[in-house]
Amino acid sequence: MTLHHQPLAAFNWKSVATDVTENGAAVLRNLLPPASCETVAALYDRPEGFRSHVQMARHNFGKGEYRYFAYPLPPWLTELRSDLYARLAPVANQWATDLGYEHDYPASHRDYIERCHAAEQRRPTPLLLRYVAGDYNCLHQDLYGAEWFPLQVIVLLNAPEQDFAGGELMVVEQRPRMQSKGSVISLQQGDAAVIAVNHRPRRGARGYSRVTLRHGVSPLTRGQRHTLGIIFHDAA
Prior knowledge:
Number of helices: 4
Oligomer: single chain
């Protein structure tokens, strides 16, 4: 299977870094063309390529389902995951510097996965999610062990209003001594959201502090919605 996508060099990565740092999310418009979206979504019904199948309601995660890809990942997914990582590793390293973490992320995703495996996190985390009318995803963070990469990518594979209604991607920011702030990330088919996995840095008068974020999906009112989740760390 060959997956076509917009060249990553076409995106303004400086703007992506600014948006995700200041808001916890940035959007890559038209990352995948409609034909590629449909091809990826159709993989959901071929379970031989996945390591597990999760029904959200059984775990009180919400309502809906998803499948984690198995190793070896499809070549197109390995390439896309690695190329996106390379673009986002400088942002992750800047965040670590701003927040005073003694942690650095290698330039190569292969090297980073070796670090995950050395920490006994060996299960792949890219996944396909499927929602139908009435389904939703509770606010959460995709942390699977002590080793985690602070950014992830979510690609919308169906067309809003045409294929489904509702089902909006939400990011909620927990602000110290203040009420939480929620945002809806508006996506069209093929768009990708780059979001913070756990927290982002916020610059204040006394330096940087952590802002914790969670994400979820509002209830679908009709149709069917698939997303591709690209998480860069592996799971324990």
